Amino acid sequence: MKAAIIYQAGEIPQYAEIPEPVVQHDQEVLVRVKAVAIKNLDKLKASGQHYSSEKTAKIQVVGTDGVGLLPNGQRIYGVGTAGTMAEQAVFIKDWCSPVPDALDDATAAALPNAAMGSALALRFRAGLKPGETVLINGATGFTGKMAIQLAKYYGAGKIIVTGRNEEVLQALPELGADQLVSLNQDDNDFVSQLKKIHAETPINVVIDYLWGHSAELILSSLKGTGTFSARTRYVSIGSMSGDTITLSSQILRSIDLQLSGSGLGSWTKEEISLLFKEILPELFRLAAEQQLKIEVTTVPIQDVEKFWNSNLTDGKRLVVNI
């Protein structure tokens, strides 16, 4: 069969022939793949830089999930036991969700990773309550835009967003953002703006896709003065601006701060079960009813080598059709 494969970590995937996968036990199912989204996770795993990457060099199919057809013709989204960007892949039965007829393959393939990067953080790590104020750091990306919509859907009272892409940032109120904070401004101005916002409406939840210097600035803006403070649940999801930060112990001592992460390895079995049984079916339904705005760009698998390193800066997701 044809697939997008890499022969060594760090290489660009190539469209080539590879043996068909084989189901190993009754908890797996062979799927005819229709669409696979190219995500930052996939790129990091293919480069060997993600913490879950294979440590030994070997030929492998890229992609972690996708939309496809079961042997009985049912269309599903699922996670593969190995690479999924191929004509066929083996999916984990318990990690699959049905896809409604009204939802196209590309949108269904693009939605779940963004849902994992937003819904799980909002519901399980942050424990968002109706009426609370949410700050989304790095909201101009695909997952950040999803987080705005889901925060609003889950009942956030106010949503503050940051971003560098000014054109996309200015359009985020259409998705539910209430206040915009540009990351292009001077550090002091950025901190001053957030301090003013925090003083007026205490920030209850921070969903962070950037980490790095912007996280340092946000934490600095939350620093207290020795008086009682509202609790802030800060959830790290990505590190697009850097993997490490400097954190002053004075910040930790001056505010009621809960710092956690949301990603592969941090979720419980129960949370993953809810993701596939309840959360994804609900979000697929919302997307099919056009209550979620999801923008994708599609390319054929034959062109994966050409498009693999494409960076869509307008908050869209690149999806490979197979």
From TrEMBL:
It holds the Pfam family ADH_zinc_N. Signal peptide: none annotated. Residues 10-319 form the Enoyl reductase (ER) domain. GO terms for molecular function: oxidoreductase activity. InterPro entries: ADH-like_C, ER, GroES-like_sf, NAD(P)-bd_dom_sf, Zn-ADH-like_protein. This is NADPH:quinone reductase-like Zn-dependent oxidoreductase. It comes from Pedobacter cryoconitis.
